[in-house]
Amino acid sequence: MLKISTKGRYALRIMLDLAKHSEEGPVSLRTVAKRQQITLKYMESIMSLLLREELVISTRGKSGGYKLTRKVEDYNVYEILHAAEGNLAPVQCLAVSENDCPLHKKCPTLPMWTGLEKLVREYLQGFTLDMLNTADLPSPNCGH
Amino acid sequence: MLKISTKGRYALRIMLDLAKHSEEGPVSLRTVAKRQQITLKYMESIMSLLLREELVISTRGKSGGYKLTRKVEDYNVYEILHAAEGNLAPVQCLAVSENDCPLHKKCPTLPMWTGLEKLVREYLQGFTLDMLNTADLPSPNCGH
DNA sequence: TGATTTTCTGGTATTTTTATAGGAAATCTT
DNA sequence: AAGATTTCCTATAAAAATACCAGAAAATCA
User: Fold this and answer.
1) E-strand spans in B76-123?
2) In Å, what is the separation between the CA of B44 and the C1' of C7?
3) How many whole angstroms separate alpha carbon B108 and alpha carbon B103?
4) pTM (2 d.p.)
5) 3-class SS shares of chain B: helix, strand, coil, % to 5
6) CATH number for position A15
7) Segment B50-97, tens digit of pLDDT
8) Considering the domain boundaries, does residue A136 fall inside one?
9) Which residue range(s) make up the domain with A38?
10) Nucleotides of D under 7 A from a protein CB
């Protein structure tokens, strides 16, 4: 139903938290979990997705944790949600790499969906992490 | 994941089919089901949603069926999807009638979600049934 | 009266989402 | 070297959403 799942919303909150606290060394998930009220185990599974896309870098062991790989102004919301949730296309046949729908050339709604995907993508790409963090949320926040 | 469910896509296809064929009297679901390759029973449950919002009108009995209540140019895609899928807000706290999130005034992402909802809504409101039908799809179509 | 079609109730199967559990591997600190 | 901490990996379970089916009642027309 055009919903963002918790996985995506949590990923965004985690990234915002890291952006706030990762200047002086890696941040452990345990401290993020406390601030954000997300269970440690669920966060771990989300981190693997962010790690795979190289949005964060990790160091194991004591006093280890996660750090951002770029400057906060170089992340946009779209790529974070995309990393966490996979493809954001509103209908399936936009998501597949090769358009295997045999009737896509005559499909009356395809241009509409294509336009919607573009609209959403470009809108979310317009928000960077530091833009959001200037709003200065109290942690933990409401779940967005 | 920002997906439109089959319920919404089917509702749109059904409305497009009705728009095409309902000039000369009511259209039975059986004929729509044949053309659109959707099971009769699933369509019935979708029709009850469209009926509740008075997007269509029904007549029972022999040679009964469904008809549009308005002219084709007076339907937009948003209201059809909304009727079929319920609220299209990307995050839950936009969907509730009264904003019960205690921190919504300090939530750093809320304005972004509000803007996204508005963007999507206005985009989909810009498409009317007759705009889509001029593309003249072969029925059944690909599933969009 | 009989045929057809919507409508209603309720149920089931499948998939996706969300979350948890346990332990292995790596790294730091002492 | 030992212990503590933290990421990482695999598996599983609970919950919710989605998709679909069955059967019968009600309405309508011929």
Assistant:
1) none
2) 9
3) 10
4) 0.88
5) 50, 10, 40
6) 1.10.10.10
7) 999 999 999 998 889 999 999 999 999 999 999 998 878 787 666 554
8) no
9) 6-131
10) 3-11, 17-23, 26-30
